[in-house]
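Supplementary Note 2. Why include the ligand at all?

Several targets in our set were suspected to adopt different conformations when bound, so apo predictions alone were not considered sufficient. For every target with a known small-molecule partner we therefore ran a joint prediction. The input for iron/sulfur cluster is given below.
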Amino acid sequence: MSKIGIPRTLAYFIYFPFWKTFFEALGQEVVVSPPTTREIMDIGVREAVNDACIPIKLYHGHVAYLADKVDYIFCPRLVSVRKHGDFGTETFCPKFLGLPDMVRLALNNLPEIIDERVDLKKGKDELLKVCARVGETLGQSGTEIKRAFKQAMKVDGRFKQLLYQNYTPVEAMAMIFDQQEHIPPPRQETDLKIAVVGYPYAIYDAYINAGILKLLQKEKVRVYTQDMLSDKTMNRQARTLPKSMFWYFSNRAVYGALHFMQEKGIDGIIHITAFACGPDSIVDRLLEIESRRRNHIPYLAIAVDEHTGEAGIRTRVEAFLDMLRFRRDKA
Ligand code: SF4
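The joint prediction is reproduced in token form.
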């Protein structure tokens, strides 16, 4: 049995249930890095190239944490996960495409990196082919791989169902894998409804965003994110734009935000944006313009980086909530 290390950042928040199930069904042990800490961030900032965005720096920190604890680091080269139909070409941001190379160059003494290329727009059997290549690296037979793939697809389907029931990925994973500390409490009375959009690794990493989701929860805010929407719902928004953003996670943030801007009962939108992210400079401007054009919905952008302090975020979020309450009570 080998130990497979999975960094708890970037695509973790979307694909972990699938890959954990797949590896475990093959009899491998999955080791996940812990939630981001100051130490993990400091290592990432020190080891990654200077001009990388903060999520990429964090990824380096998580990989460094796992390096001496596992036999393999699972770091697939994510190119695409769907055909984007008439909406234009779509890939992951270039940093995702070069991630295995960046990590190899920046960090010493790494175990073997499983860096299979994932380009699912090539055809409907492509994910099974990726799994076959990953499984073969681990010495598994075709029958074992097919069985593990089936189980992983089943768990992934359950994960998506929970997301569509408005659970966050962290809550949905806790429910699937019985992680008591993250299982959501019964839903309480709601004062405001806010859509939080952005990259999953910015929204759900409580360290990098200074615990914004918890803060909203304490303020009796019901939070919705783009990950709670189906592709079909989001693609309706894709049709309202002259062209797509080209990058997968950016498209999801934009389509999700546009959906919530038109959704009755949503009081405001918060966009968590990553400092030094090229795509986000366009996403943020677009959302600002669209929030004015579509119903004048209140919009707050919060940029996170390695210097983000809890006090600064708290002040801005609390001021935003006060403004939303004032606006609602005046109406
Ligand atoms: S989309 Fe932006 S934040 Fe995400 S990896 Fe690319 S540059 Fe970094």
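The chain has 14 helices and ten strands. Residues 142-164 form the longest helix (23 residues). Comparable summaries for the other entries are listed in the accompanying table.
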